[in-house]
From TrEMBL:
Protein name, entry field: DUF4337 domain-containing protein
Residues passing through the membrane, by range: 29-48, 141-159, 165-185
InterPro entries: DUF4337
Coiled coil region boundaries: none
The keyword Cell inner membrane is assigned to this record: no
UniProt-annotated stretches for the region Disordered: 1-20
Alphabetized UniProt keyword annotations: Membrane, Transmembrane, Transmembrane helix
Pfam family, any one: DUF4337
Entry superkingdom: Bacteria
Organism: Sphingomonas kyungheensis
Length: 186
């Protein structure tokens, strides 16, 4: 003979289920928490996106600075060659080699290298400024996300304790989080 399991439900169990299904506060809190979680996901995504942009521009700034450093080193080498050629021309004016022409050639190349190095420095500074601009909203978005998470936590506690004033606190934290999210873009 097989033994079947039967669930015997008491009036207390039915009352708890009925209360859970028909409690408007619990439904409001669940909806409120879902909305806050959605807003939190959006704020978190935007904060991460801004942080990635800042890292991209910072990387670009470092790359341009490295290229500028290489260009400046090449410029210094050409300038050293020019200086040696000028010194050789001054010390051996009757030489068969035209040191003055070498000095002029090195000076001309040095000017182009200097312009290239300055261009890389300028691009590095622009990328660094862009990184700072991209990172500015990130801090406010991170703080906004913290306030939204506190709002979710307070809403959960209010659902457990059935304290409406905690829901009001959760709403206040949520509003601050939303306000900071909006303020991050201004």
């Amino acid at each position: 003979m097989t033994q079947e399991e039967f669930e015997v439900r008491g009036t207390h169990d039915e009352a708890v289920e009925h209360h859970a299904r028909h409690e408007p506060l619990a439904q409001k809190i669940a909806l409120f928490s879902a909305i806050l979680a959605t807003l939190g996901a959006i704020v978190s995504f935007l904060g991460g996106h801004e942080q990635n942009d800042a890292l991209y521009y910072k990387n670009e700034a470092v790359l341009m600075k490295a290229r500028a450093s290489d260009a400046w080193a090449y410029y210094q080498a050409e300038d050293l060659k020019r200086h040696l050629a000028e010194t050789s021309a001054a010390l051996a004016p009757a030489s068969t080699h035209d040191y003055a022409a070498d000095a002029a050639r090195y000076a001309k190349r040095g000017q182009a290298l200097r312009a290239t190095a300055e261009g890389y420095d300028r691009r590095s500074e622009e990328a660094d400024a862009e990184a700072r601009r991209a990172l500015r909203p990130h801090t406010k978005l991170a703080i906004a996300m913290t306030f939204l998470q506190i709002g979710i936590a307070l809403a959960s506690i209010s659902a457990l304790t059935r304290r409406r004033w905690l829901l009001a606190g959760a709403s206040a934290f949520a509003l601050i989080g939303v306000a900071l999210s909006i303020a991050a873009w201004f």
